Amino acid sequence: MEGQGMESLNAQQLAQIQATSGAGSSGQNPDAKKQESEMRDEMLSQILTSEARERLGRINLVKPEKAKQIGDLLLSMAARGQIMKKVTQDELVDILERINSSTQKETKIVYSRRNIDDSDDEDEYDL
To answer: Bias regions of kind Basic and acidic residues — which residues (predicted)?
Structure first.
């Protein structure tokens, strides 16, 4: 019963945040942004354990856009009822791995070799 109450509360809060952020974030005053941020943090604290919340905070220090993406995903999962209990650090790591594998960019290394005054010139071997 408590899980359903938390789920409906999260869904209502998520809808309210989305409604306020849909009004245009560039024209919002700083108080509204601060209130939205506080509500978001409160909702995340309801669905994350303290270890998971701490890990998300460390991610936020390094990559704020990635932390926002993860927070949005967690809040939408909670609103849809996919999260029935608090998310642990291990579950958060699994979510991070899924996000990273889907958005991972392939790196390509290119070696540029220069042939300027090589000591291996073939002319030296001609006798």
So the answer is: 31-43
> 90 pLDDT exceeds 90?
yes
Tell me the domain boundaries of the chain: 32-103
CA-nearest of 40, 54, 123 to 88 is 54
Phi-psi group of 126: left, alpha or beta (phi > 0 → left; psi -120 to 50 → alpha; rest → beta) = beta
Distance CA 23, CA 59 (A): 28
Amino acid at 123: D
33 contacts: CB under 8 Å, gap ≥ 6: 25
Work out the mean pLDDT of the chain and round it to a whole number.
78
- 32-103: CATH topology is Helicase, Ruva Protein; domain 3 (1.10.8)
Planar angle of CA 2, 81, 76, nearest 5 degrees: 120
